[in-house]
UniProtKB/TrEMBL annotation:
Its EC number is 3.4.-.-. It is found in: Cell membrane. GO terms for cellular component: plasma membrane. Belongs to the protease PrsW family. One of its GO terms (molecular function) is peptidase activity. PANTHER family: PROTEASE PRSW. This is Protease PrsW. Keywords: Cell membrane, Hydrolase, Membrane, Protease, Transmembrane, Transmembrane helix.
């Protein structure tokens, strides 16, 4: 059991540590990040419950709508909504890079518990593949979401609402594409590899851009 839990939790911790250590200009309070991670864990339960009810009641019977559109949009909406109401106006969200960390944190909280439940059901044989695909993809969806939250908070008032909407739409579309690829039986591997390479490129580009905005923000605040 201990080995299984370690295998389920380790990918999320490793990915979060990577994004946390990329921030060399400022240190975000660990307690707030931990709370955000816990929020990600907690939203797993209402998401799973809603999915179960919809499936049992036959609200969504078509496989594509159930496995791709419904699950993708609901998971990203819950993460976006919790970040919006608990973190966006938090006093410790005080620079553009913080959005990256909070987005990754809530996404990895969700992905970690989902991974624990999955490995408890299917065993350690799937641990490596899940670390490469679902856990890392959730982290990168969170990075993209957090990037736009960070841009919204520290941009002129005129563009704030548009960026908040992008914080939902961009990761939602990426998640839909990811889940759609997994429905291609037999060919999914040929599609998922280039998509994951693109997702890493896109996510790391957002990390780099957020770091540039952080440096600019600190200059404006006369902190460097």
């Amino acid at each position: 059991m201990l080995i299984l839990l370690s295998a389920a939790i380790a990918p999320g911790l490793a990915l979060f540590s990577y994004f946390y250590l990329r921030n060399q200009m400022a240190t975000e309070p660990r307690r707030t990040l931990f709370h955000t991670f816990i929020y990600g864990l907690l939203i797993t339960f209402p998401i799973l419950f809603i999915q179960y009810v919809f499936i049992e009641e036959g609200v969504i019977s078509h496989g594509f709508f159930q496995d791709v559109l419904f699950s993708s949009t609901m998971e990203e909406f819950f993460k976006w909504f919790i970040l919006l109401i608990t973190i966006y106006n938090h006093g410790e969200f005080d620079d553009p890079y913080d959005g990256i960390l909070y987005g990754a944190s809530i996404s990895l909280g969700f992905a970690t518990l989902e991974n624990v439940l999955y490995l408890l059901t299917y065993g350690l044989d799937t641990a490596f593949l899940r670390a490469l695909l679902p856990v890392s993809s959730h982290a990168l969806f969170g990075v993209v979401m957090g990037y736009y939250f960070g841009q919204s908070k520290f941009s002129p008032k005129k563009g704030k609402k548009t960026l908040i909407v992008l914080a939902l739409i961009a990761p939602m579309l990426l998640h839909i594409i990811y889940n759609t690829i997994l429905t291609f039986r037999g060919q999914w591997l040929y599609l998922i590899v280039p998509f994951m390479l693109f997702l890493w490129w896109f996510g790391l580009r957002k990390v780099k851009q957020a770091h540039i905005h952080l440096v600019r923000h600190l200059h404006e605040q006369n902190k460097i």
